[in-house]
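Problem 12. The chain below contains 240 residues. Write out its predicted structure in token notation.
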Amino acid sequence: MNLLKIKASYNLWVAGWLLVTLVAGCNSKTETSQTQAEKPAAADSAKKPVGGEKKTILFFGNSLTAGYGLDPAQAFPALVGEKAKAAGYDYQVINAGVSGETTAGGKSRISWVLRQPVDVFVLELGANDGLRGIPLDDSGKNLQAIIDTVKLKNPQVQIVIAGMHIPPNLGTDYSSQFYKLFVTLSRKNKAELIPFLLEDVGGIPKLNQADGIHPTAEGHKIVAENVWKVLEPVLQKQQL
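Solution.
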């Protein structure tokens, strides 16, 4: 995506994200999102199967994954689960999103979340790091540690990484290297990459809530489509 286009389209989104994430995000993590961290399966789009025969897709991320401000059924992980079911794929979908989550936070809780086998792991973390100016090397190490933990417990797992863009407010070099972080991780780990999770949603007022940064129910439908374009081929391969 053209860097000038990012700056023009997403400054409003980032301004809202900075306000909500840095001022209220920490409170959200310790209060409203605590139940999500403690019960990552609470937003399942499918019931746990008898006998454990159904494969599992685990979405691991921040408030975008959690569906901040919405019913869990309206968040993109649940919508992706509906798409998978409609396409004939028998998967249990688990939403392990926590509002305000950073890569460091994700690293600290990943082992606890992996309480059952995972077939597809969708990693959506890094935006809060980028908007806080956390050193990219630190973010990269945390994300790699998360991936390593997932692979150690689930050797056959397919990793899907959600790419994110941030405007050049912290410098064009930082914003450019920030996005390249996801590209590098996907190549290193032979993971699939969602080019930009918020494509056609970020910075568009009618598709975001009053805070300007969290997608509405309609916005999540578009995000779900962005994810599905990458995820469906992964599910197809697992059927072979």
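Discussion. Residues 3-129+147-238 form a domain with the Rossmann fold fold (CATH 3.40.50.1110). Students who got a different answer should revisit the alignment rule from Section 12.3.
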